[in-house]
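Hey, I was hoping to borrow your eyes for a little while. I'm sending you its amino acid sequence along with the backbone structure tokens. Take your time with it, there's no hurry, and the full record follows here.
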Amino acid sequence: MVMQLNKTIFLIIAMLLFSCKGEAQKGKDIIKETSVKNEQTKKKSSINFFDERYFVGYELAIDESTISDHPFFRYLGCKDLGYFSVHFIPKEKKVLNFWMKDYYKNIDFNTYDFENDKIKINTFLKNNLDKYYIFSYFVSSEYLNSNGECTIENVFLKENSKAEIYLYDNNLNKWDYVKGINATTILPPYADYEFFKANFPNLFRDEAGSSISNWYGKYSLTLNENSEDWRNIHEIKLSISENSITYSAEGFQLYEFYKLSSKENNNGLQLDFSEALHNTENEMHLKRTKDFGLISFDGKKYKWLCPYIDESFTNGKKNTYVLKKED
């Protein structure tokens, strides 16, 4: 009887141990699977589309019979990255008209050497990137099929393919994921000016009159510039571009780097705290206020009424700060 009871207890314990081991292994598998998925997501979201490995030259001619309305370049890697095209979309109509009407003006396409475009387009884009929204249209290799060699002519997309669109942040030098869409089955899936305008109308609202683009630029201001104690001197910088606004403050035992949000009104540009970058959140300062105030322009000077700076550096005393803007 005792022996039979011991056997029963042993079997119960064995079953429990087996069950626990199975659950533990299952947990490890889930962690492993999640880790793999996270790593894949991390890899996908950290692609640098400007990496020299992917660049083979700028283009304007899509094929022998089709001309793009803006400069772009593309990369195809069937077994590694996949396919992407980087598009330089003009912010202003006059720049768009240049590429659509003037660039190939009086050109004989029967004799034109399109290889020259790789260098020629670069001369127009160089040092003028602030005039463009830079998008990447990305399709992962899992959606690619090939009829032979890995070339634009031989590769096509599978049914129900997905594409990811990224927008380049000039301030932070990084690509931000902005949208996922159903991809066309044709390769290359060319996206023109109207495609980006339709998908991101907020970026092109300046055609209707009002635009944050009037405020694009880099601004600076020095607090306590003439102080005899260098520890009281603080350097404040503000950078406003097409898709981000950043604020930084540096000085003795001070480093803040924030992303701000904006809203236009009749008096200027209203700024508010959005998020801290590089783990620089100053809880004491932000607890007082997250209002970064109003920037205005009187025709000669850029002026900034900023409650955050007042509360952080002047004990709440209200000031009008004159900003220096880089040319």
